[in-house]
């Protein structure tokens, strides 16, 4: 992928590399936070988060997509005449 991007647009290659590094860092941070959060919650409250992982993922997906869905269905309607002009 890097060779193709480099041929098309060299500055784009640097941007892609930056985002790949940021993605890896974010993934590592989420893994470590999840591991230590599970250990903390299990120690302090006696709840194993791994047993409830499906519910946690569903809640995260719903919370992150709810604003988009609300805006799609209840947002301001665009006038057709305004978009043509």
Which helices and strands appear, and what pairs or packs with what?
Elements: H1 2-8, H2 10-45, H3 53-74, H4 80-84
Helix pairs in contact: 1-2
List keywords for this structure.
85 residues, mainly alpha, 82% helix, flat
Beta-strand fraction estimate: under 5%
Distance between the termini: 40 Å
Question: Helix proportion of residues, in percent?
Answer: over 70%
The major sheet is characterized as: none
Radius of gyration, in angstroms, nearest whole number: 21 Å
- Based on CA inertia axes, which overall geometry fits? flat
Number of helices: 4
Number of strands: 0
Concise structural overview:
By secondary structure, this protein is an all-alpha fold. It has helices at residues 2-8, 10-45, 53-74, 80-84.
How is this structure best described in words?
There is one protein chain. The protein is mostly helical. It has four helices and no strands. It has helices spanning 2-8, 10-45, 53-74, 80-84. The longest helix is centred in the N-terminal third of the chain and has 36 residues, at 10-45. The chain is flat and about 60 Å long. The two termini are 40 Å apart. The model has no long low-confidence stretch (mean pLDDT 84).
């Amino acid at each position: 992928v890097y060779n193709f991007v480099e041929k098309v647009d060299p500055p784009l290659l640097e941007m892609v590399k930056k985002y790949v590094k940021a993605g890896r860092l974010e993934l590592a941070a989420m893994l470590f936070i999840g591991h230590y959060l599970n250990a903390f919650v299990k120690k302090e409250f006696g709840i194993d988060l791994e047993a409830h992982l499906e519910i946690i993922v569903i809640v995260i997906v719903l919370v992150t997509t709810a604003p988009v869905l609300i805006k799609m269905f209840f947002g301001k309607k665009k006038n057709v005449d305004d978009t043509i002009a």
